[in-house]
Amino acid sequence: MKYFNSLSTAALLLAVTSLFSCKDTQSSANENSNDNSNVNNVVVNTVATNDSKVEESSAVYPIAYVNVDSLLLNYDYAKDLNSALLKKQEKSRKELKSKEEKFRADYESMMKKYQAGAYLTEDALRREQENLAKQEQDFQILENKLAQELMSEQQKTNAQLRDTIASFFKIYNADKRYKYILSDAGVLYYDETLDITNDVVAQLNARYAARKKK
């Protein structure tokens, strides 16, 4: 049960480094108005500042910052998803614990009978041992299966959060007041008119082509 014992709430939802990326946050996503209003409360409170110097800086070159850790800890939708994930984890843990307790009980029973000389034939002892070995194998298979299911659910949850928040930032910055919205995890939003990728690629290819000719 190593997987379930070591998995923490932080590991379930707050792997913020991989949760957001520049490419992903520019993708479109549909979310209901309730989710958007919830995020709005979180993000406005996060971005808002009483520091006049920061406000002046933003006015010169409009950049805002969001603390993603704080956002996810306070966003009701994220908390609900986390709660559902933890419930699934606890259900899996209980199922594994029940199987483990049965195995231990059967093992202790076999040892007591063996020590008491209750097995009249070697075949009877062998059958008990094979039964225990099968239980142990089934337990490992179940543990791996539940761990994979939980990991898949975690990835699905992260994707839901990413798409919801990415969708929100397009609405939040519809007036184009910010050119960039940054976080400790990376870029949450950027003005696509600032994207110079195609120009950079064209010039890099031109330089490479010139070197090949030489």
Quickly describe the structure.
With 214 residues, the protein is mainly α. It is 73% helix and 6% strand.
Strand order of the largest sheet: 1-2-3
Measured as a percent range, the helix fraction is: over 70%
Structural class: mainly alpha
Give the DSSP E fraction (strand runs of 2 or more residues): 5-15%
- Helical stretch tally: 10
How can the largest sheet be summarized?
3 strands, mixed
Q: What is the terminal separation in angstroms?
A: 62 Å
* Residue windows where pLDDT falls under 50 for at least 5 positions: 1-18, 21-54
Total strand segments: 3
What is the C-alpha radius of gyration, as a whole number of Å? Answer: 28 Å
Order of helical and strand elements: HHHHHHEHHHEEH
The best one-word shape is elongated
Mean pLDDT: 77
Fold and architecture overview:
A three-stranded mixed β-sheet has the order 1-2-3. The N and C termini lie far apart (62 Å). α5 (33-47) crosses α9 (122-172) and α8 (76-115) packs antiparallel against α9 (122-172). Residues 1-18 and 21-54 have low confidence and may be disordered. 16% of the residues are buried. The chain contains ten helices and three strands, in the order ααααααβαααββα. The longest helix has 51 residues, at 122-172. The protein has helices at residues 2-6, 9-13, 16-19, 22-25, 33-47, 52-60, 68-74, 76-115, 122-172, 197-213; strands at residues 63-66, 180-183, 186-190. With 214 residues, it is mainly α. The protein is elongated, with a radius of gyration of 28 Å.
